């Protein structure tokens, strides 16, 4: 998505909980019509950042501007057009779906006719039309997740914060939520989408911000993050001790441990072909081959200090 007018501008935001520095001088800018995927391990600071933007927590330092308005000096005005769907679903269980939406539409200042139109449109988009008169406590997990998201969107916010919106969601709910997020951006909303699911980032054509230990360690388009931070790998497993394959790869690219050889490369396909052609007599001892292409997943793992031999997204061949 192309960034338009700046809707969210987080400047040098820091937050500590006792000795733990949850955020350290974080900058984040999201334009109108842009989806930004916020990635990070558990404890990286994603939920803290979303909570500060939403006004649920106060930063120790830094500023949050929403639509150019300082959220610390004019919080009501800054957040008037903000919609939040936190990870934990929050609905009134004894109220019907329609009444849940009416409550939050009223808080957003919608008039009666505007409220009715907004509820009907959201219900259709999120597959809630046939559930509007059902009490929230009677919904399935996926249905409740869709209602939870609808509540965040019923006021037509210009900035939408979605924290792990598809956690525990079924396939139908996930597809509906992703479609609604794309529609929001198409209609000009700025969307911050915190997630652990990398395929969703690609489906949304989102820009990427990766948090690690409270710092932004990477940002850019998916292709930019992959090009700058991801290295592919070829891993071979032998019967018995692994042979010396240093002659088949650039210096420093090979790590040998017991029966395993790991070769880091930006061109895994060509490297695989060259290694297989050069194995000679050792080919009969080859028992497994795993090829990892450069990807957002491998970039994330390398940036967040996961083991280099992790092969998420790889294609595996076992003899």
Structure characterization notes:
This protein is of the alpha/beta class and 319 residues long. 31% of the residues lie in helices and 29% in strands. The chain is built from ten helices and 15 strands. The strands form three sheets. Strands 6-7-8-3-9-10 form a six-stranded mixed sheet, with helices on both faces. The protein has a five-stranded antiparallel sheet with strand order 12-13-11-14-15, covered by helices on one side. The longest helix has 16 residues, at 171-186. The protein is elongated. Residues 307-319 have low confidence and may be disordered.
Element-level helix/strand string: EEEHEEHEHHHEHEHEEHEEEHEHE
Mean pLDDT: 89
Helix content: 25-40%
- What is the rounded distance between the termini? 43 Å
Q: Supply Rg.
A: 24 Å
Q: What is the number of helices?
A: 10
Principal-axis shape: elongated
Q: How many beta strands in the DSSP annotation?
A: 15
Structural class: alpha/beta
Give the uncertain stretches in residue-range form.
Answer: 307-319
The strand order across the widest sheet is 6-7-8-3-9-10
What fraction of the residues are assigned to beta strands by DSSP? 25-35%
Biggest β-sheet: count, sense, barrel? 6 strands, mixed
Strand and helix layout:
Layout lengths: L5 E12 L2 E12 L3 E6 L5 H8 L7 E6 L2 E2 L4 H4 L3 E4 L11 H11 L4 H14 L15 H13 L5 E5 L7 H16 L3 E5 L3 H6 L3 E6 L2 E6 L1 H8 L2 E7 L15 E4 L2 E6 L2 H11 L7 E7 L3 H8 L11 E4 L1
Parallel strand pairs: 3-8, 3-9, 6-7, 7-8
Antiparallel strand pairs: 1-2, 1-4, 4-5, 9-10, 11-13, 11-14, 12-13, 14-15
């Amino acid at each position: 998505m192309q960034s338009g007018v700046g809707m969210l501008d987080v400047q040098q935001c820091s937050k500590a909980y006792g000795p733990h520095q949850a955020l350290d001088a974080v900058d984040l800018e999201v334009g109108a019509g842009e989806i930004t995927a916020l990635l990070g391990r558990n404890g990286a600071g994603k939920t803290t950042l979303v909570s500060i933007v939403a006004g649920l927590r106060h930063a120790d330092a830094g500023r949050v501007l929403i639509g150019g308005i300082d959220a610390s000096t004019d919080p009501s005005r800054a957040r008037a057009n903000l919609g939040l769907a936190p990870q934990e679903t929050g609905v009134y269980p004894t109220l019907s779906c329609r009444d849940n939406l009416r409550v939050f539409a009223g808080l957003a200042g919608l008039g009666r006719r505007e409220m009715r139109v907004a509820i009907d449109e959201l219900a259709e988009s999120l597959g809630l039309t046939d559930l509007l008169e059902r009490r929230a406590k009677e919904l399935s997990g996926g249905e409740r997740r869709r209602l939870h998201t609808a509540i965040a969107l019923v006021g037509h916010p210009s900035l939408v914060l979605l924290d792990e919106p598809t956690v525990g969601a079924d396939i139908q709910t996930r597809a509906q939520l992703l479609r609604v997020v794309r529609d929001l951006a198409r209609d000009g909303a700025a969307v911050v989408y915190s997630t652990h699911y990398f395929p969703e980032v690609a489906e949304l054509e989102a820009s990427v911000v990766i948090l690690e230990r409270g710092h932004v360690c990477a940002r850019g388009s998916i292709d930019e993050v992959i090009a700058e931070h991801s290295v592919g790998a070829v891993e071979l497993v032998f019967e018995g001790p692994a042979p010396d394959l240093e002659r088949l790869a650039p210096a420093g690219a090979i790590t040998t441990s017991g029966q395993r050889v790991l070769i880091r490369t930006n061109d895994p396909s060509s490297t695989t072909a060259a290694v297989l052609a050069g194995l000679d007599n050792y080919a009969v001892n080859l028992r497994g081959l795993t090829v990892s292409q450069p990807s957002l997943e491998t970039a994330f793992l390398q940036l967040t200090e996961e083991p280099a031999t992790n092969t998420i997204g790889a294609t595996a061949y076992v003899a």
